[in-house]
């Protein structure tokens, strides 16, 4: 029998179905005590509509693997950051045609600096690898993605924006 | 259950041939979150404070969604809807917290849909009609978003150190979201002010429309002052907010509108449930279905 952790780690993200919840970094903890499984996840954005889908996918997958007594908990703190997307997750995103986020590190203390111009491009085109890309819109089909275009191959593509 | 798209999820055969209409259909958003109330805190004050923060986000979210399909370009439809979704997410967490701390059995849906106008605790800035429609235009909406997101970002920045674990967690997450809401509004302010004579004229007029409601943001309410280790006294964020707004205005070659603050009513305003007439017109469509058909399903 596969462990509860292995089952939970393999559940796919509802909005980026090339990533598992483990790749995305939202799966915080899986504990199994006397047949009772407690899975802890964290939302990506406050209004992420996928969080309920994640809970029900986790329960369904665990039930399918024979785990009937499952509780899915949500923790809000510490807040999720795109830095928690694993190396495997970044590779899968790029292969799927979505540019992965850059690593941003911890936010310095004090007021958040104002950006009066869009930040300079550090995003490579996932199709041709060119660094000549521009942001078309900071907002795209889901909260976590921005829309960009490659100036070399002219293809539009999505980018998981840094948070 | 996994679906290829949202429509499949909505039309899923749930066994009883009924689908949700009232409420989110989602689980409790605070499921599993550590929600112990700090010992020395008044639960009634904490509940009201959560409502203030929640209502600001809920009402502006509703206003922003009015733009969906009516923004000047498709990307902006998506942007304003995304910002509205972030605020709605913050509102849900805060309403759920307000309801559980209050202890009267009201959940987030009851608080959003079944309160009357005078029970809403939002600042008046978020409720006024800034368009689309006769109350304003895109520039006015951007002006409001600039002022509101700059202020809320500063408040949440302090609230991330709150003695209430739920408020601290909601704020720490909200800071990341408000940071790009503010950047979006600031960048549009520059584009409109530096664009054509017409776009600049609209930006100037938009700022003048929202500026009378700027002072109210920094006026502390007794409940905020009664929760020193938990709540943020909004008068303390004024220097930070002023500095950011002045930076944006200077870069856009704009100046602060010379307008008087909108008067309070007997010393009371949005935080006390005293609103402009715009709020009733906003709540009517927002609450209509839930009130006409309580617990409705189809």
TrEMBL record, chain A:
A Pfam family: Zn_ribbon_PaaD
Domain PaaD zinc beta ribbon: 118-161
UniProt xrefs under InterPro entries: Fe-S_Maturation_MIP18 (IPR052339), FSCA_dom_sf (IPR034904), MIP18-like (IPR002744), PaaD-like (IPR011883), Zn_ribbon_PaaD (IPR056572)
Source organism, top-level taxon: Bacteria
Residues covered by the MIP18 family-like domain: 9-72
Full protein name: Phenylacetate-CoA oxygenase subunit PaaJ
Automatic annotation (TrEMBL), chain B:
Transmembrane segments: none
Gene3D superfamilies, sorted: 1.20.1260.10
GO CC annotation: cytosol
InterPro entries the UniProt entry points to: Aromatic_CoA_ox/epox, Ferritin-like, Ferritin-like_SF, PaaA_PaaC, PaaC
One GO-annotated biological process of the protein: phenylacetate catabolic process
Domain of life: Bacteria
Pfam families tied to this protein: PaaA_PaaC (PF05138)
Record protein name field: Phenylacetate-CoA oxygenase subunit PaaI
The organism's taxonomic lineage, starting at the top: Bacteria, Bacillati, Actinomycetota, Actinomycetes, Pseudonocardiales
């Amino acid at each position: 029998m596969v462990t509860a952790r292995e089952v939970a780690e393999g559940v796919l993200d509802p909005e980026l179905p090339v990533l598992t919840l483990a790749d995305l970094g939202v799966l915080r903890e899986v504990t199994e005590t006397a047949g009772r499984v407690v899975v802890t996840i964290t939302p990506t954005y406050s209004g992420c509509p996928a969080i309920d889908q994640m809970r029900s996918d986790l329960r369904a997958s665990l039930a399918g693997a024979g785990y009937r007594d499952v509780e899915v908990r949500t923790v809000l703190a510490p807040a999720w950051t795109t830095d928690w997307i694993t190396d495997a997750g970044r590779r899968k995103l790029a292969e799927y045609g979505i540019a992965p986020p850059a690593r941003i590190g911890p936010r310095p203390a004090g007021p958040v600096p104002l950006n009066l111009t869009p930040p300079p491009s550090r995003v490579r085109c996932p199709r041709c690898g060119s660094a000549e890309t521009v942001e078309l819109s900071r907002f795209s089909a889901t909260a976590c993605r921005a829309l960009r275009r490659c100036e070399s191959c002219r293809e539009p593509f999505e980018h998981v924006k840094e948070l | 259950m996994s679906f290829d798209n949202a429509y499949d999820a909505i039309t899923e055969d749930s066994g009883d041939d009924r689908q949700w209409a009232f409420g989110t259909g989602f689980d409790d958003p605070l499921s599993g979150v550590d929600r112990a109330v700090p010992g020395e805190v008044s639960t009634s004050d904490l509940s009201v404070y959560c409502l203030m923060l929640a209502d600001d986000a809920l009402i502006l979210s509703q206003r922003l969604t009015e733009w969906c399909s009516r923004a000047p370009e498709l990307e902006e439809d998506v942007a304003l809807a995304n910002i509205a979704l972030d605020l709605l997410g913050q509102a849900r967490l805060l309403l759920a917290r307000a309801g559980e701390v209050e202890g009267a059995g009201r959940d987030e849906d009851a608080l959003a849909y079944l309160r009357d106008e005078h029970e809403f605790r939002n600042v008046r800035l978020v409720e006024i009609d800034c368009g689309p429609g006769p109350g304003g235009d895109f520039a006015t909406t951007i002006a409001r978003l600039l002022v509101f997101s700059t202020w809320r970002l500063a408040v949440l920045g302090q609230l991330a150190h709150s003695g209430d674990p739920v408020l601290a967690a909601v704020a720490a997450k909200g800071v990341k979201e408000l940071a790009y809401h503010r950047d979006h509004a600031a960048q549009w302010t520059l584009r409109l002010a530096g664009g054509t004579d017409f776009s600049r004229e609209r930006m100037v007029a938009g700022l003048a429309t929202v500026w009378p409601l700027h002072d109210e943001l920094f006026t502390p309410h007794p409940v905020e002052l009664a929760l020193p280790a938990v709540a943020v006294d909004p008068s303390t964020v004024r220097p930070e907010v002023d500095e950011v707004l002045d930076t944006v205005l200077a870069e856009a070659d704009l100046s602060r509108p010379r307008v008087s603050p909108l008067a309070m009513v007997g010393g009371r305003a949005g935080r006390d449930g005293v609103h402009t007439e715009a709020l009733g017109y906003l709540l009517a469509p927002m609450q209509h279905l839930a009130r006409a058909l309580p617990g409705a399903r189809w």
